[in-house]
Amino acid sequence: MRITRTGRSGRRAAVLATSALTASALLLTGCSDDSGSDASDSNGNITLTVADFGQFGYKEADLFAKYHKLHPNITVKEQTTANEQDYYPKLLQQLNTGSGLADVTGIEVGRIKEVVDTQAAKFTDLSKTIDVNDWVSWKEKQATAADGTVIGAGTDIGPMSLCYRTDLFKQAGLPTDREAVAKAVAGGWEDYLKLGEQFKKKAPSGTYFMDSASAMYNAVVSSSAQQYYDASGKAIYKDSPSVQQGWNLAAEAASKKLTQGLPQFTDAWTAALRKGTVATVACPAWMAGQISTNSGDAFKGKWDIAKAPGSTAANWGGSFLAVPKSGKHAKEAAELVKWLTAPEQQAEVFKAIGVFPSNKGAYDLASVKDAKLPYFSDAPIGQIYADEAKSIPEAVLGPKDATIKDTISTQINNMEQRGTKPADAWKAATDQIDKVIG
User: Fold this and answer.
1) In angstroms, rounded to a whole number, what is the distance separating the alpha carbons of residues 57 and 354?
2) pLDDT class for 186, splitting at 50, 70, 90?
3) Residue 41 neighbours by CB under 8 Å, 6+ apart
4) How many CA atoms lie within 13 A of 219 on its CB side?
5) In 10 A of CB 367, how many CB atoms?
6) Within 13 Å of residue 421, how many CA atoms lie on the same side as its CB?
């Protein structure tokens, strides 16, 4: 989700293994201006470039080296930009000018609708290469244009859970068993706030029930099929029931001071995890890596993972790999995408960094279905996330989903940090959004 994904759709930085959980520093290289599209020699050897953002896990899973062994004439080089907010404008510029594009390019789920609607003609139709039925049904539909062209193959998804500190829950007199915690919030995010009020009564000094109300907001909206746009493409975020519910719950959390008010992936947020002041985090699959990396060895075994609040599954995050038509080796690039997004390779990435596969075939592999996280008290994440993934509703996406979400999240942070009144914060958010989307 790539330590950041459109600002607040964050990527994990930790390396997660099913047999052991380890944390390592993420080394990111700057995005090169050179395109590998014409890199070849007289012997038929070619170089394919893959442009992505944050952490897709291919380096950690050693997939490019494995591909070279299978195809000795092909060398794959990765161009990584740390922040998706920097990556996406550059991608649009490259698409508009027709130069500088890599052979394979990553696209974040918050951008995919805009790319499908405005840039589909510039990408290879991957339906000729992949079988879209191999993915969870809603995933490939997100990358499918009106004429049936499929411009992206799904990499990961972000099925939702709830990460929580068992030691802090115990000190506050709350249940610690993951099944009991799931039962306590089974009624939805409203129950989650009630649990937070119970926590606050006996909370250890200096601790907070949740890290960020904006994170909870994103989790609430992500559980709905209707979010910021309707099926006709009209922006409906002002009247969307899921947005209204998420906003009201966030305002309530802020007013009751159940949150530490820390925008995710900021220095203050990572410091809070390191100091152990946060009791719960809304947890899409990729978030476990962020928590384990920033919490460190001191809190290993003190975190656990329970089913997300409510009965409706949610997805937060996920990306795609696409092949620009302008590349000199589009056929080879498409075959690389097919291989990278196949079940076996998605399972390897899951083992390496914890991002959950979108290819259904991976769910039956032992390395996925039997996966547990020692850092999180051996939480059976393979089971938790696979069950969630199969029932996630097909969300209606819009071209400015990421912009709308980030703008609203910023105003939720203002309610938490500055005490901005909900009505004023909502007006500020909608005014800014309207200027962008018209």
Assistant:
1) 9
2) very high
3) none
4) 29
5) 16
6) 3
